[in-house]
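Hello,

Our lab assistant flagged a job as stuck in the queue for most of the afternoon. It eventually completed. Since we weren't sure the result was trustworthy after the delay, we are filing this so someone can double-check. Below is the sequence as submitted and the structure that was eventually returned. Let us know if re-running is recommended.
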Amino acid sequence: MSQNLRSSLAQVQVPRLPTGETLMPYLARVDANRWYSNRGELVQRLESRLNVLLGGRENAGLTTRDGTDRGGDGHAVVVTANTGSAAIEAAILAAAGRATPERPIALVPSYTFVATALSVIRCGYRPHFVDVDPATWMLDPAALAAHPMLDRAGLVMPVAAYGRAPDMRAWEKMHAATGVPVVIDAAPAFEAFARDPGLISATVPAALSFHATKSFSTIEGGAVLWRDEGRLFQVAQISCFGVTDQRLCLFEGFNGKLSEYHAAMGLACLDEWTRREDAYARIARAYQADLGSVGRVVTAPAISAAYVLLESENAAVSYIAEQRLGARGIGARRWYGMGLHRQPAFADATRDPLPVTEGLTLRHLGLPAAIDLTDEDIAFVLATLHGEDIHTSEAGATARLQPRYG
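-- returned structure --
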């Protein structure tokens, strides 16, 4: 197999966002307005369109330059932030506040990306790692409601693993029964909430990431979803240094505002969202194959289209699959590493026994998931996993299977 083919599939995720040409009408508005940050016109337009997509009302939102005047006509369910981490932290500060001496603990899964734990640490909490459910790969609300450390927990942070839809009604019940604030790290779950806006809660906020690797992107960015406009307004204030329209800082905040340039990318991404959904659906269909003992491929809509996962029966099979892919120059990634409890930064964190997490980290393997993969690209990945030889000449393989990453 040619070197060109191996290098072209070497990365698990190669983002492809709207082109510079499609951004030009939006950038012209930025130039005309001379309003580059502090909740400008494009941020307002982006939030308005996201509100419609997510079941709110058009023109709803928080519309002033400093983020302190509600504006719009109400029924807002989304406010943007400049990163997914900023969205998490603003949601924590609005829902739970900073950690206290009486409640210094945040109960979080180990089966997640490091941003989850780093965000709770920046809000003053000490993460305590909890195991996940083997079927959902997420925290179990009933188990958390009975957790022995709950009386010292000031925060519970479930994670929507790989963009799976969290059980928002169950988390609402857990929050109501225990009084412990719950904030969902739903970083890759944009599609789940877009498919079912009824997931958005009035009592349990969810934070999204709009990073370039996500299915919907502002390059860098994020958002908080909350069906409580007063609390959503507080999130906007927190991400604008905690100041009011009288220039008074009433509570702790930080600079978490999305810029007009990033909002331009979000608007362009929404303009082609239907085409992007169709492209992701084609990739999911192309990955449907019987791999026998190698495992099963998990794709959208079960998870976000930003991921394609190989779930093997055990660690040994997953390791063999990883070696097969590597031998052909095909990228693979264990997206959540070996779990946060294995990360040096969290070596001192307390934890429960984590047998499910330990197993999932060894059995889940990320496969190439770029939006413009061809059917031939995916067939090559599947054939490699299955251990089949590609019976083509070097030249023929290069011509027929060459991926296109514009």
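-- support follow-up --
The delay was a queue issue, not a problem with the job. The result is valid. The chain has a mean pLDDT of 90. The longest strand covers residues 105-109.
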